[in-house]
Protein backbone atom coordinates (compact mmCIF):
# COMPACT_ATOMS: atom_id res chain seq x y z
CA UNK A 1 0.00 0.00 0.00
CA UNK A 2 1.31 3.43 -0.92
CA UNK A 3 1.13 6.00 1.77
CA UNK A 4 -0.14 9.44 0.92
CA UNK A 5 2.92 11.15 2.40
CA UNK A 6 5.09 9.84 -0.47
CA UNK A 7 3.11 11.70 -3.13
CA UNK A 8 2.26 15.36 -2.77
CA UNK A 9 -1.33 16.38 -3.44
CA UNK A 10 -0.20 18.48 -6.39
CA UNK A 11 0.93 15.32 -8.17
CA UNK A 12 -2.51 13.75 -7.76
CA UNK A 13 -4.34 16.70 -9.24
CA UNK A 14 -2.06 17.27 -12.19
CA UNK A 15 -3.41 16.25 -15.59
CA UNK A 16 -0.91 15.08 -18.11
CA UNK A 17 -1.15 15.81 -21.83
CA UNK A 18 -1.98 12.21 -22.75
CA UNK A 19 -4.95 12.24 -20.35
CA UNK A 20 -6.77 14.95 -22.31
CA UNK A 21 -6.93 13.15 -25.65
CA UNK A 22 -10.46 12.17 -26.61
CA UNK A 23 -11.82 9.76 -29.13
CA UNK A 24 -14.92 10.48 -31.18
CA UNK A 25 -17.46 7.71 -30.81
CA UNK A 26 -20.09 7.06 -33.46
CA UNK A 27 -23.60 8.20 -32.57
CA UNK A 28 -26.30 5.65 -32.09
CA UNK A 29 -28.95 5.71 -34.81
CA UNK A 30 -31.85 7.99 -33.98
CA UNK A 31 -34.84 5.90 -32.98
CA UNK A 32 -37.00 8.66 -31.59
CA UNK A 33 -40.70 9.01 -32.04
CA UNK A 34 -42.24 11.16 -34.70
CA UNK A 35 -43.72 14.53 -33.88
CA UNK A 36 -47.26 13.16 -34.17
CA UNK A 37 -46.44 10.25 -31.84
CA UNK A 38 -44.94 12.62 -29.26
CA UNK A 39 -47.99 14.89 -29.52
CA UNK A 40 -50.38 11.95 -29.12
CA UNK A 41 -48.48 10.62 -26.13
CA UNK A 42 -48.48 14.07 -24.52
CA UNK A 43 -52.17 14.56 -25.23
CA UNK A 44 -53.18 11.23 -23.72
CA UNK A 45 -50.85 11.84 -20.78
CA UNK A 46 -52.64 15.13 -20.17
CA UNK A 47 -55.98 13.34 -20.27
CA UNK A 48 -54.76 10.75 -17.76
CA UNK A 49 -53.43 13.47 -15.46
CA UNK A 50 -56.72 15.36 -15.82
CA UNK A 51 -58.63 12.25 -14.78
CA UNK A 52 -56.44 11.97 -11.69
CA UNK A 53 -57.08 15.63 -10.81
CA UNK A 54 -60.80 15.18 -11.38
CA UNK A 55 -60.84 12.07 -9.17
CA UNK A 56 -59.08 13.97 -6.39
CA UNK A 57 -61.55 16.84 -6.68
CA UNK A 58 -64.59 14.55 -6.66
CA UNK A 59 -63.26 12.63 -3.66
CA UNK A 60 -62.49 15.90 -1.88
CA UNK A 61 -65.97 17.24 -2.61
CA UNK A 62 -67.54 14.00 -1.40
CA UNK A 63 -65.57 14.08 1.83
CA UNK A 64 -66.36 17.76 2.38
CA UNK A 65 -70.06 17.14 1.79
CA UNK A 66 -70.00 14.19 4.18
CA UNK A 67 -68.25 16.33 6.80
CA UNK A 68 -70.75 19.18 6.40
CA UNK A 69 -73.69 16.76 6.21
CA UNK A 70 -74.97 18.11 2.89
CA UNK A 71 -75.80 16.24 -0.33
CA UNK A 72 -72.71 15.38 -2.33
CA UNK A 73 -71.68 13.66 -5.53
CA UNK A 74 -72.85 10.21 -4.44
CA UNK A 75 -71.18 6.83 -4.34
CA UNK A 76 -71.01 6.12 -8.08
CA UNK A 77 -68.86 9.15 -9.03
CA UNK A 78 -66.71 8.72 -5.93
CA UNK A 79 -65.93 5.14 -6.96
CA UNK A 80 -65.98 5.58 -10.74
CA UNK A 81 -63.60 8.53 -11.01
CA UNK A 82 -60.70 6.89 -9.15
CA UNK A 83 -61.18 3.64 -11.09
CA UNK A 84 -61.13 5.53 -14.40
CA UNK A 85 -58.06 7.48 -13.28
CA UNK A 86 -56.11 4.36 -12.27
CA UNK A 87 -57.01 2.54 -15.49
CA UNK A 88 -56.02 5.61 -17.54
CA UNK A 89 -52.68 5.84 -15.75
CA UNK A 90 -52.00 2.16 -16.42
CA UNK A 91 -52.90 2.56 -20.10
CA UNK A 92 -50.73 5.68 -20.31
CA UNK A 93 -47.82 3.77 -18.82
CA UNK A 94 -48.19 1.20 -21.58
CA UNK A 95 -48.37 4.01 -24.15
CA UNK A 96 -45.21 5.63 -22.77
CA UNK A 97 -43.21 2.42 -22.71
CA UNK A 98 -44.35 0.98 -26.04
CA UNK A 99 -44.05 1.91 -29.68
CA UNK A 100 -46.19 1.51 -32.74
CA UNK A 101 -49.65 0.01 -32.67
CA UNK A 102 -49.49 -0.97 -28.99
CA UNK A 103 -48.75 2.62 -27.94
CA UNK A 104 -51.48 3.98 -30.21
CA UNK A 105 -54.08 1.54 -28.88
CA UNK A 106 -53.11 2.34 -25.29
CA UNK A 107 -53.59 6.04 -26.08
CA UNK A 108 -57.01 5.32 -27.54
CA UNK A 109 -57.88 3.46 -24.33
CA UNK A 110 -56.91 6.54 -22.31
CA UNK A 111 -59.08 8.70 -24.57
CA UNK A 112 -62.00 6.25 -24.28
CA UNK A 113 -61.71 6.16 -20.48
CA UNK A 114 -61.69 9.96 -20.27
CA UNK A 115 -64.70 10.31 -22.57
CA UNK A 116 -66.58 7.55 -20.76
CA UNK A 117 -65.97 9.10 -17.35
CA UNK A 118 -66.97 12.56 -18.54
CA UNK A 119 -70.06 11.28 -20.33
CA UNK A 120 -71.20 9.02 -17.50
CA UNK A 121 -70.63 11.36 -14.56
CA UNK A 122 -70.91 14.85 -16.03
CA UNK A 123 -72.78 15.06 -19.34
CA UNK A 124 -75.47 12.35 -19.18
In whole angstroms, how far apart are the ends?
79 Å
Average pLDDT, rounded to a whole number, is: 87
- Form type: elongated
* Uncertain residue ranges: none
Structural class: mainly alpha
Q: State the helical fraction.
A: 55-70%
Tally the helices. 4
Number of strands: 0
Order of helices and strands: HHHH
Main beta-sheet annotation: none
Give the amount of beta strand, in percent. Answer: under 5%
What gyration radius follows from the Cα positions, in whole Å? 27 Å
What's the arrangement of secondary structure elements?
Elements: H1 9-13, H2 35-68, H3 75-97, H4 101-123
Helix pairs in contact: 2-3, 2-4, 3-4
Keywords for this structure?
single chain; mainly alpha; elongated
Task: Give an overview in words.
The chain is mainly α and 124 residues long. It is built from four helices and no strands. The chain has helices at residues 9-13, 35-68, 75-97, 101-123. Helix 2 (35-68) packs antiparallel against helix 3, helix 2 (35-68) runs parallel beside helix 4 and helix 3 (75-97) runs antiparallel to helix 4. The longest helix has 34 residues, at 35-68. It is elongated and about 80 Å long.
In short:
By secondary structure, the protein is mainly α.
Amino acid sequence: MVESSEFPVEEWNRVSEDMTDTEELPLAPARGRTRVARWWRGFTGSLAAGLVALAVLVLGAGLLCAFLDVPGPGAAPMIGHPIAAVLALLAQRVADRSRGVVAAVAGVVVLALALTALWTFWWA
